[in-house]
Amino acid sequence: MQQQWWHKSVIYQIYPRSFNDSNNDGIGDIKGIIQKLDYLKELGIEVIWLSPIYESPNVDNGYDISDYYSILPEYGTMDDMNKLLLESHQREIKIIMDLVVNHTSDQHPWFIEAKKSKDNPYRNYYIWRDPMNGQEPNELDSNFGGSAWEYDESTNQYYLHLYSKQQPDLNWENETMRISIWEMMNFWIDKGISGFRMDVIDLIGKNPDKQIKENGPKLHDYLQEMYINTFGKHDLLTVGETWGATTENAKLYSDPKRKELNMVFQFEHMNLDKIPGKRRWDLKKLELVELKQVLSKWQYALGQEGWNSLFWNNHDLPRIVSRWGNDGEYRVKSAKMLATLLHGMKGTPYVYQGEEIGMTNAVFDSIDDYIDIETRNVYKERIKDGFSEEEIMKSLYMKARDNARTPMQWSDEPNAGFSKGKPWMKVNPNYTYINVKNALEDEDSVFYHYQKLIDMRKNNNLIVYGTYNLLEPDNENIYAYERILENEKLLIVCNFYEVEKKFYYPVTEYTKARILLSNYNNSGLDISNIRLRPYEAIIYQIS
Ligand code: TEU
Ligand code: CA
Questions:
Q1: Ranges for the Glycosyl hydrolase family 13 catalytic domain (predicted)?
Q2: Among all ligands shown, which has an atom nearest to the Cα of 19?
Q3: pLDDT per residue over 358-407, tens digit each?
Q4: What is the ipTM of this complex?
Q5: Of 377, 420, 435, whose CA–CA distance to 402 is shortest?
Q6: Are residues 241 and 265 in contact, defined by beta-carbon separation less than 8 angstroms?
């Protein structure tokens, strides 16, 4: 496998609205990010994935772009963006931008033009269909609930939106539209960005008449055309968000010979605590054996051809320590265990803002505290469907995207040091003890565990390129696997729960083991009989 710079990097996702507010209007901004670059440098990350900072009406917090070439004034100016690039590069931190090109905002000039008439030059930048018997053209539904078709009276046609009606889908069959996208991408590449995270990129090949959303027939043609016309000429990092990816088509995206993307975010592991075939609000207990099967399947599938992304969190997901760890008595231990389990694997790890200090989900008693359009839609939908308020609020606590969007907790000052103004979203009340200031002052904090994991990846080819091998697949409490490179081996062994367990690793009289990292101070050295206390996670080097 040809070595790439992003094989060794750890990527930190910033959700700008909630990261750091420099001018006390209650909204995070670019100057606020610049103020925290030294913190990110200390954590050891080498790449920032910046969620959208472009002009937007913020129906979907920036994933509804109305001008790809300008910065949302609440976040700052293009000068601020240029300064962020300069200051990051001075710290040897790269920046990848969020590329949202499955749809635009309905306030984008292209759509405003397109709506004017059927023969407007921009009409076919979007997807329009005649009514069918006076109704929507077909049954396609929006991922935010309801129909994916919105009626436009002025031209007596429907337009397609797989998200909110304020996010009309772009028509990728239109080559003129695609060229407009290449031009925009090259504008940002020329500014010195280091790559793109591509929002719902598996939807751009959609066939609305056949009601196909994901993995449409021309998807890979468009990606190969994008490669040739934009990032293919540069050494950039590209990661596609592909909710529908399978191990088979993930190879199509990430096999270097195909000249498409470097890797994808697949979400199979993120669907293991919902009732199969239902929506993520229909809760089911996670089974560790299933998690081991899914994560191992992806490690094996993309181990030699293609490349995995590794993540528990992002701005759309609940916080992992509340979801699958223990955000009470064992918050620190379980956060470290989950980090060890993930960062020991083969692939590029992503850390979402606040994950590195063990931030948790927020307990909101009222739907009024939830701001996300998806959350508010599902609340209305479920009330209509007869779910009890209690059931709905429990699902929201466990799965709402808002959990990831409460302001970053910098200190125990008011508003967690995020802002001196009224934050756009409620701060999690536990900021008084879960915050960066406390973490940096505590050598045993989650922060320093992440710092060690990130540093380990930079200097250890065994972690980066070693073959993955799952141990004891049927063990319902312990996740243990090896990483093997020539005659070197790592053993990563994690107690996923709070009941003490034993793990027996086969040894000979010549086997030697040393601890590279543990979330306990005095973990055992005898790997033939390892005592695993609550959430104990250990990385052994074996020779
Ligand atoms: O998300 C894709 C997406 O479908 C998820 O939001 C999913 O619907 C849900 O959150 C989990 O089931 C991307 C962006 O990450 C998200 O923030 C945007 O809202 C969405 O696309 C539209 O751009
Ligand atoms: Ca601000």
A1: 13-405
A2: 2
A3: 999 999 989 999 999 999 999 999 999 999 999 999 999 999 999 999 99
A4: 0.96
A5: 377
A6: yes
Stretch (H or E) spanning 248: helix 247-254
Task: Give the integer Cα–Cα distance in Å for 331 and 170.
Answer: 43
Q: Please write the tens of the pLDDT for every residue from 93-139.
A: 999 999 999 999 999 999 999 999 999 999 999 999 999 999 999 99
Stretch 173-181: mean pLDDT: 98
Task: Identify the residue whose C-alpha is closest to ligand 1 atom 11.
Answer: 316
Backbone angles phi, psi at 380, to 5 degrees: -60, -45
**Is 486 a catalytic site residue?**
no
The closest alpha carbon to 449, from 333, 275, 371, belongs to 333
The letter for the amino acid at 478 is: I
DSSP designation for 427: P
Length of the chain: 543
**CA dihedral for 270, 271, 273, 279, sign (positive or negative):** positive
Active-site choice (21, 199, 268, 356): 199
Name residues contacting ligand 1 (CB within 6 A): 60, 63, 100, 143, 163, 199-200, 241, 243, 280, 315-316, 374, 401
For residue 144, the ligand 1 atom closest to its alpha carbon is 8
Q: What's the rounded Cα separation, in Å, for the pair 63 and 470?
A: 38
Which is the closest atom of ligand 1 to the Cα of 103?
23
Residue nearest (by alpha carbon) to ligand 1 atom 3: 200
Q: What is the DSSP letter of 132?
A: B
